[in-house]
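Can anyone check this?
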Amino acid sequence: MWKIPGLAGRPRFTSRATVLVLVLCSLVAILAYPARQFLTQRSEIADQRARAEHARQQVDELRRAKARWQDPEYVKAQARERLHFAMPGETPFVSVDPSAPPGPASADALPTGPVRAAKPWYTTVLESVDLADSTPAPHEDSTP
């Protein structure tokens, strides 16, 4: 085997190399957390910008809708379509498809119980209050 004079007694890593490796490892350890925080904050900023853009689009759409509702003709058209309003002197009507059979479309649509007449909502509320007030309290056993 061939020996190079002067290299046989030298260690593989010198003290300078060891210090350099320790400094590099320390820098990596010190910078890892701030770098992770930086990347996390950048992604959060991107998410916030996307949300802000979405909010701007919603505001623009709402402004357009508000401008439409300022037009009296649009309000009239919506009242006719949604609420079935009619102008004075007009006769409102509802068209029915003549090809549809009269009555419920299927056997599932048939009511199973007694059909009650429609009552105003406040009547139902008052009945439920009366019913809740009239229920007896649970009896307590007072056995000694």
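Reply from J.R.: I decoded it. The longest helix spans residues 15-69.
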